[in-house]
Amino acid sequence: MGYFAESFAELYNADGWIDMGxxxxxxGSSAAGWWTVIATVMLLGVLVKGNSDEQxxxx
Amino acid sequence: xxxxxLALTADLAAVKSAAQVTNTMFAEMYYYVTIPLxxxxxxxxxxxxxxxxxxxxxxxxxxxxxxxxxxxxxxWYLFGWWFYWALPTWPLDLAAGAGYMEISGIGYxxxxxxxxxxxxxxxGPNMADNASGVFWGAFALFAATTASIASGALIERIQTVGxxxxxxxxxxxxxxxxxxxxxxxxxxxxxEFGYHDFxxxxxxxxxxxxxxxxxxxxxxxxxxxxxxxGSANHLAGHxxxxxxxxxxxxxxxxxxxxxxxxxxxxxxxxxxxDKGTTIYGTPMTLSALAFNVPLAAAGGIIGAWVVTRDPFWxxxxxxxxIISVASGLDIYFGSTVIAVSMLAGMxxxxxADWLEGLGIDDAVGCVTVHxxxxxxxxxxxxxxxxxxxxxxxxxxxxxxxxxIWGQFVGSIVMFLLGFVPGYVVSWIVGKAGMLRxxxxxxxxxxxxxxxxxxxxxxxxxxxxxxx
Lengths: 59, 467
Known about the structure:
The complex is a heterodimer of chains A (about 60) and B (about 475). Chain A has about 60 residues and is mainly alpha-helical. Helices cover about 55% and strands about 0% of the residues of chain A. Chain A has helices spanning about 10, 30-59. By secondary structure, chain B is an all-alpha fold. Chain B has a domain at about 65-220 and about 285-440: Ammonium transporter fold. Helices cover about 65% and strands about 0% of the residues of chain B. Chain B has helices at about 1-50, 60-85, 105-110, 130-150, 160-180, 190-195, 200-220, 240-260, 285-310, 310-325, 335-355, 365-385, 405-430, 440-445, 445-450. In chain B, helix 1 (about 1-50) packs parallel to helix 4 and helix 10 runs parallel beside helix 12. The radius of gyration of chain B is 23 Å and the shape is globular. In chain B, about 55% of the residues are buried. At the A-B interface, helix 2 of A face helix 2 and helix 5 of B.
């Protein structure tokens, strides 16, 4: 999913530390943004569903 | 000879490199440790609020507290961190451009604080960046702490999701903006007014306390708190030992909170190669906190004991003592701290009684401990610390110093940054029917209605609860 090196050995054998992110989700690609969209939608969904359930309790 | 010089030069370079690695790893470890220490603040809030709640509502208070922590941290990642870096010069600069230090403004925030695009490299694991994660983590806990402060005032009658929305607004927007303006070397309160608030008496505590007040005005009191003639009833929590222990845990966490307010030396992001500083770049040591935080805690306890003899207010006084000197913990002399914090402990309960006399049901004294005492602390520094430089030696020559006027302006701003968002967001949430739990449910008990567990399944049943 966008990891930019084949192995850690490849990273460590490069000239010094690689100056970019190592996160799963893809450094320098659009994947990071899509993961952020997914996380945001999930959080909003939880709030909407949570509120719906909570209102049911008060009826 | 030449070979020896070359060898020595190589050795020196290796030693320097090793020293820098040690310094970098120490700095990373230093801020990392502040994060679990600040989690103790939340452990404390959890115990404190559940102890201050009646048996029939204990777990509901716990759920509310846990969700405030969780959602605020997530929201801080998604947009709160961006607020902090983007808005120090706004609205003086309506375009929110970079300040003098060039570590602020929308362009800067877009480059380092957005979880997408190129900026994402600073928002996750990165072998070339030992700083962004630990700073973000510490600030996320600052945000969660701010949101959780307001939580206690609202127990036993605020809806869960409605409260979470309020907590997100407080922990990310209200606090993020307050920190940008008053806790950043480019913040306009700092550069234009010399506002100094090292330990966040105003920009965490007053903002949270008065945010809670804004919510309380829309939320109303718990059922049974006030009688028809306006007199108040004491709705005792079910477990005072839990509450008092929770307060002590909050104090433990404060040590982590405050040590995270220091900028260590010797890194690319440091103000100096060889001096620790405040976030404003003014010099300070960790030893200043080692003197002043315990003294402030002691002064607050003693001051509250003189007036109340009540362990709840003594531990609230402990918090108030630290908050009362938080703005100047970096520069106060120890005996000054004792005097100011004792005074804060003494005025605490009378101020809380005054608020209750106005018909406001602040279940744990949050508005007074954090709001009133927070502003008291900001103003005390103006009175006692006027003339001290507001920024470090790197700042422009015309930088203003700490002053009564600057601290007064800061106090007004922090009051408004708390109260206005608190009132507005809770009004909107209330109009959506998501703020106040119906009175019939309050009377029955929240845990019986909406929590699939019992706090004390083998005992401690409430005479008021159907459960």
